[in-house]
Amino acid sequence: MADLTDEIAASAAQWVVEEGLEYGPAKKRALKVLGLPPRTPLPHNDQVEAQVREYIEIFCAETQPKELLALRRHALMWMTRLAEFRPYLGGAVWHGTATRLSDIYLQLFCDDTKATEIELINKGVDFEARSVNGLQGEPVDALSVHSHCEELGEEIGVHLLINDFDGIRGALKADAQGRSPRGDLNALRLLIEA
């Protein structure tokens, strides 16, 4: 069984890196490509992430570090613009597995969820509003923006997930590997400087 989940994780990693898919859709596509039934047990995200890192090391070692740095700088610009909403960067850009096809995910923590929408409107930023599952599985508002990244010369998806002000406590618990799942402006600056 472990060999099968490794094979699914490796296939999913290819879709994550080459097409910018999120882990869930990439695992489902891997099942289809490998001709496996839909109820086949899927690998954990940690397993997929390990395969993504390996795939990047083998096939993208020359380009990925520059793309990651560009995405982190772009995230820093957005976090600075939205500093009053206590932004935290998560996902592949935070964990270091992002490529030019990856989106930026910012968790915002504020008392008034509509304040972020008003701020974007005041700055003339077009966005798409929807509801997604939040950090604890509860529905939260998500504002998605297409933002031009100068360094990459292309549009990047920036997703602002709006959480209750007090939700920050649970948002910083270490993951299974002991890593912080997201970082604030100062943490991101340190990553960029490193």
Which outline best applies? globular
Query: How far apart, in Å, are the first and last alpha carbons?
Result: 39 Å
For CATH, the homologous superfamily of the largest domain is named as Beta Polymerase, domain 2
Indicate the CATH architecture of the largest domain. 2-Layer Sandwich
What order do the helices and strands follow?
Answer: HHHHEHEHEEEHH
Number of H/I helices: 8
The main pleated sheet reads as: 5 strands, mixed
Strand order of the largest sheet: 1-2-5-4-3
pLDDT average, as an integer? 93
Based on secondary structure, the structural category is alpha+beta
Polypeptide structure, described:
The radius of gyration is 17 Å and the shape is globular. Helix content is 46%, strand content 20%. The model has no long low-confidence stretch (mean pLDDT 93). It has helices at residues 2-19, 23-33, 45-59, 64-81, 91-95, 113-122, 168-171, 185-193; strands at 88-90, 104-110, 128-133, 139-149, 154-164. The chain starts with a helix and ends with a helix. The chain folds into 2 domains: 2-59; 64-193, Beta Polymerase, domain 2. With 194 residues, it is α+β, with helices and mostly antiparallel strands. The chain is built from 8 helices and 5 strands. Strands 1-2-5-4-3 form a 5-stranded mixed beta sheet.
How are the elements arranged and paired?
Elements: H1 2-19, H2 23-33, H3 45-59, H4 64-81, E1 88-90, H5 91-95, E2 104-110, H6 113-122, E3 128-133, E4 139-149, E5 154-164, H7 168-171, H8 185-193
Parallel strand pairs: 2-5
Antiparallel strand pairs: 1-2, 3-4, 4-5
